[in-house]
Amino acid sequence: MVEEFIFARLSSKAPAEIFRELRETPEGKSVTRNQVYYLWQKENAKIWKRDADPLKSAKILLSENDRYGGLFDEFASGNVRALSFFAPEAVRLARSVTQLVMDSTYGTNNAGMDLFAVLAEIDGTGLPLAYCLLDVVKSPNESGKLRADLGAKTDVLKQFLQRLKGLEFNPRCFAIDKDQAEISAVRSVWPEAKIQLCYWHVKRAVNKKMCESKKTKTQDHYWPENALRLIPDLEVCWGTLPERRPLGTDHWLGRCECPSTTEKLERDGRLEVTTKKERDTVLEILRRHFHLHPLIPDENGTFKSADTIRRECVTELYTWCKARGYYRLWAYMFTNWYADDEWELWARSADPNEIPTVKTTMIVESHWRTLKHDYLHRFNRPRVDLVVWILTTRVIPDAVHRVSAIVKNNSRVYKARWRAEFKKHWRTIAKKDVDPEKLERYHTNPGWQIQVVRDLTSMNFKTKMT
Fold first, then answer.
1. Distance in angstroms (rounded) separating the CA atoms of residues 375 and 397
2. What is the dotted CATH code of the domain comprising 55-139+146-197+360-403?
3. Which residues contact 27 (CB under 8 A, 6 or more apart)?
4. pLDDT tens, 411-435?
5. Domain limits of the chain?
6. N or C: which end of the chain has fewer CB within 10 A?
7. What is the pTM of this model?
8. What is the DSSP string of 119-168?
């Protein structure tokens, strides 16, 4: 009787819900919570468990599904192995999309495998295209924390993305967080794509660094000649260790006229910003620099080149730090965010021809939240094959259903969540009076706006000035 009670609610209720209902019956008075979970898990496993080895079971599950028969692969490099699979309906639906997002999460399975996902951005909504379960294999002699062999993780991710490219995906923008393995893999597979670091992660990293109380050694990595190419008025010796000044120059020989030539610097120390007001100011400067773009005019209606934008941004940050004597903050910001290679990763103006609509990886974070809160919370340390079964039979079909409604403009079924907030804000702004002076400064170009709308409608994000 108890087993029948549990099995009847197997697909619709979690063990805790079944246990609460079972307590109200005469037969369930002596049944424990663990017994309910055991029976529920045992019967549930018949649906998705194919083998005692979870990874082997996951591959059997994928091979049994006609849709995934030829769309899953195993990759290996060094001590890293991976199982990847691709969503066929999503691939067909999003093949023309030019902006992709990738991120990883952990804690989804009891094998400790990291789960990577690549999503296509469609009208502000994420559509999962591919997943990759990545694991670092432990040898019999190893103990303690596992570490991937040098370059192995990058090589596996490269193979994973290369398969996605083979499905006719050619993104012009790829949004990720600052994971070097992901960055290297994307650059290798799509060298022409604009890598766009997540704005939220950039802001969080800078704020976290400014709040740290431990000492840093940013001066050991600061080369002033790199900044001098962008800031002609740079005081080369300010905040620069003597051995890092340009070789063969008066600065290196100590014969220059820089006021800080003879100042002694400590190699390590914490960043100088100590108040919340100053930290907020730095983050506000970073925010403005992130959003600048050659296709967006300034308040005077001037369109600036990508090179001009970068020079002005670096100069503004340097001037702010120099006025306060914050040479450690300047060295950290320039070395980690404003140097040549770093600027190209996060500043939207680094690609002067297109404006990425994706600013963060939040659509992937939302995807992880759905997976964990709506499905995995029912299971205690789920196996890999169970995670694969949930993704292929629950998560992906639901996402395809939502995005299909968006593409077909069927708002009765689903519409992008940002639209309701956008309409609300639009109506609020429409009620405000327009200041004639501000209207004079803001040079609206109707022809350009119409072209942008047409480009976005056709999912061509290349905005051309008319």
1. 14
2. 3.30.420
3. 1, 2, 5
4. 888 888 888 888 899 899 888 887 7
5. 2-48, 55-139+146-197+360-403, 201-350, 433-466
6. N
7. 0.84
8. EEEETTEEEEEEEEEEEEPPPTT--SS--PPTTHHHHHHHHHHHHHHTTT
